[in-house]
């Protein structure tokens, strides 16, 4: 387990807010199945999966949790309510694979659970105007609908929270029927994979452009603090996710807006933690492993209200934690049905 701790900076603060993002990796209640009819948890497997989540919440007690890869939202809500999460939102539902096997599902959804009131929660659909500017079709849509919720938080007031699960790096390809698949040559397969991988990158990058366009518009309208949590399926500094970096805009000047450009910037919570606490020499923990190679895919981004370098900021990041013991040192009886992602959480306190 990799954990960082800034000597409990906010242990005695009047306000401490803990955020977490969790990819639940096929959270589906039996007899439902994910993707294939054989993927049905036994009652014991389903119990292990829920217990793993219970243990994490019991240990770290996040106040607000963003979830991804949820098939059974009602089961998740029922699990969380006795743990103090009175407020729960989901704005989409998974799709059956077909009408014949209507218990086999695809397209898991995102959810949000909170100990604080959720005033509103809406799905975020792609804007056709933005799609046209991107050179996409007007009917372009997110691969998974993000959730935008407004919460009433102590000391911060109304705050907008976005829960996202961006398109994965898996190639986007047309499904071939069995006869065509047999006829495929190595050359055909390689071409299809290259094209499909790039199509996934285009989808993911376009989703970020759509998301940032919505966040900027919302910030302009309300000035609410903004928090973005979820599985980005890419490195935050990749060209594909470039739209997250407002500071990279070159044709915009400070005198073009009533608010400074920093007002629309989002900050990686890890960077804010390092800068605010002065911790040095820390290696950022991976949140996902593929063939033993680690990468950071799961993020919590924060608006300028949480950047202590800004004189107008309200709060700051005092702690960053990556719960990864189930990935790097798993215990089979506890972690066999956990997740293939680490859990990222941050603790926020009022500026000192």
UniProtKB/TrEMBL annotation:
<dbReference type="GO" id="GO:0006506">
    <property type="term" value="P:GPI anchor biosynthetic process"/>
</dbReference>
<keyword id="KW-0255">Endonuclease</keyword>
<dbReference type="Pfam" id="PF03372">
    <property type="entry name" value="Exo_endo_phos"/>
</dbReference>
<dbReference type="GO" id="GO:0004527">
    <property type="term" value="F:exonuclease activity"/>
</dbReference>
<dbReference type="GO" id="GO:0016020">
    <property type="term" value="C:membrane"/>
</dbReference>
<dbReference type="InterPro" id="IPR051916">
    <property type="entry name" value="GPI-anchor_lipid_remodeler"/>
</dbReference>
<keyword id="KW-0378">Hydrolase</keyword>
<keyword id="KW-0540">Nuclease</keyword>
<dbReference type="InterPro" id="IPR005135">
    <property type="entry name" value="Endo/exonuclease/phosphatase"/>
</dbReference>
<protein>
    <submittedName>
        <fullName>Endonuclease/exonuclease/phosphatase</fullName>
    </submittedName>
</protein>
<dbReference type="GO" id="GO:0004519">
    <property type="term" value="F:endonuclease activity"/>
</dbReference>
<feature type="domain" description="Endonuclease/exonuclease/phosphatase">
    <location>
        <begin position="53"/>
        <end position="341"/>
    </location>
</feature>
<dbReference type="InterPro" id="IPR036691">
    <property type="entry name" value="Endo/exonu/phosph_ase_sf"/>
</dbReference>
């Amino acid at each position: 387990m990799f954990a960082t701790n800034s000597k409990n900076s906010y242990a005695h603060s009047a306000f401490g807010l803990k955020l977490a993002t969790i990819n639940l990796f096929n959270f589906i209640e039996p007899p439902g199945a994910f993707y294939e009819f054989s993927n049905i948890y036994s009652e014991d497997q389903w119990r292990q999966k829920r217990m793993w989540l219970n243990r994490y919440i019991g240990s770290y007690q996040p106040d607000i949790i963003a979830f991804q890869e949820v098939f059974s939202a009602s089961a998740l809500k029922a699990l969380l309510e006795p743990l103090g999460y009175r407020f729960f939102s989901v704005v989409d539902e998974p799709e059956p694979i077909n009408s014949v096997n209507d218990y086999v599902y695809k397209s898991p959804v995102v959810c949000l659970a909170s100990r604080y009131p959720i005033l509103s929660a809406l799905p975020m659909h792609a804007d056709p105007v933005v799609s046209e500017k991107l050179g996409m079709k007007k009917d372009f849509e997110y691969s998974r609908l993000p959730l935008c919720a407004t919460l009433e938080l102590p000391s911060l007031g109304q705050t907008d929270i976005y829960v996202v699960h961006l398109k994965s790096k898996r190639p986007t390809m047309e499904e071939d029927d069995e006869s065509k698949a047999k006829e495929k040559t190595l050359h055909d397969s390689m071409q299809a994979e290259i094209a499909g991988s790039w199509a996934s990158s285009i989808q993911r990058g376009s989703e970020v452009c759509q998301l940032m366009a919505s966040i900027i518009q919302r910030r302009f309208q309300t000035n609410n603090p903004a928090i973005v949590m979820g599985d980005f399926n890419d490195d935050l500094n990749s060209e594909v996710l470039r739209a997250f970096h407002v500071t990279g805009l070159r044709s915009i000047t400070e005198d073009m807006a009533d608010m400074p450009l920093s007002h629309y910037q989002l900050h990686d919570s890890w960077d804010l933690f390092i800068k605010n606490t002065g911790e040095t020499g820390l290696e950022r923990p991976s949140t996902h492993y593929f063939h033993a190679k680690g990468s950071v895919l799961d993020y919590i981004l924060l608006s300028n209200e949480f950047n202590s370098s800004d004189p107008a900021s309200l709060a700051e990041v005092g702690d960053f934690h990556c719960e990864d013991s189930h990935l790097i040192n798993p215990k089979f009886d506890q972690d066999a049905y956990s997740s293939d992602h680490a859990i990222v959480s941050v603790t926020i306190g009022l500026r000192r």
